[in-house]
Specification:
The protein is of the alpha+beta class and 290 residues long. It is built from five helices and twelve strands. Strand 11 and strand 12 form a beta hairpin. The protein is globular and about 50 Å long.
């Protein structure tokens, strides 16, 4: 599994999916109806999945480009928000894995006022991820932080198993990787970004990523230092918001560096995050990295 201790923990929510023909049993019919009102109906079809661009990441398994067919399905126009996840927790009493473990990783710029006794150390190889006692979905930056003014932001600090539990409650499931990429492309073919070939067409920011000197200073030219509301920036051609940048997103697909070769208990994430930057992690270009 991927959970507290992984780079994705600070920003990996759920983008819900349900098949048109074979939906899962609904454990909470009222919530399922609310969710499905916001699902986008996609026809499925054949598309070219993957990338062979010069700056593609071979270690991410982005290539080779291959023809993939997906069945018709529905998918959330946004990731699951804090408000939606809160309804799940209130309904079930569920505790996330970060809450059970008692800690999670927080980006270093957000922990300047944390009591040193709450710090567990940093992630090997990525010292900007700091282990903080008490960091979880309700307290994104650790004790003293809250969801105030962030109820419409994506829920974070949720593991793959936490995501699966939410899906079971709401009568949905996570998309697999091919479904996710098909939906995120929004009907565009052979484009560098989810919206076209220019990162900032006409000087307009199209996603929430890092600007400035990573990982020291974020100028926040796009308006956000951390997460943005789930409906920020223009939707793609299929009506999906923030398919690049903002937060990484879980899929149901096991991690595979190359097609057909998966790693047990490690799951694919897609889309990049607000920390992606050309100098380190340009996963906001197409296809958004894994």
């Amino acid at each position: 599994m991927t959970g507290p201790g992984d780079r994705s923990t600070g920003a990996t929510p759920v983008r819900l999916h349900t098949s048109k023909e074979r939906s899962r049993p609904e454990h909470n019919a009222n919530e399922a109806r609310k969710i499905r009102r916001d699902l986008v109906d996609l026809p499925g079809g054949v598309f070219a999945m993957g990338s062979e661009d010069p700056d593609a990441h071979p270690a991410d398994g982005e290539g080779p480009v291959r023809t993939v067919e997906v069945e018709p399905f529905l998918i959330g126009s946004t990731t699951v928000t804090n408000a939606q996840y809160e309804r799940f927790v209130k309904s079930t009493g569920y505790r996330t894995q970060a809450e059970e473990f008692g800690w999670s990783f927080v980006f270093h710029l957000f922990v300047r006022d944390i009591d040193p006794r709450m710090v567990r150390g940093v992630a090997a190889g990525t010292p900007w991820w700091v282990g903080i006692d008490g960091a979880d979905w309700r307290h994104p930056e650790g004790p003293g932080s809250s969801l105030k003014d962030r109820r419409d932001h994506p829920v974070v600090h949720v593991s793959w198993h936490d995501a699966q539990s939410y899906c079971a409650w709401s009568g949905t499931r996570l998309p697999d990787e091919a479904e996710w990429e098909y939906a995120a492309r929004g009907g565009l073919l052979r484009r560098r970004y989810a919206w076209g070939d220019e990162l900032t067409p006409g000087g307009r920011h199209m996603c929430n990523i890092w600007q400035g000197d990573f990982p020291r200073h974020n100028t926040a030219d796009d308006g956000y230092v951390g997460t943005a509301p789930a409906r920020s920036f223009p939707a793609n051609g299929y009506g999906l918001f923030n398919v690049a940048g903002n937060v990484w997103e879980w899929t149901v697909s096991p991690w595979a560096q190359s097609p057909g070769r998966s790693t047990p208990d490690v799951w694919t994430i897609r889309g990049g995050s607000y920390l992606c930057h050309d100098s380190y992690c340009n996963r906001y270009r197409w296809p958004p990295g894994r």
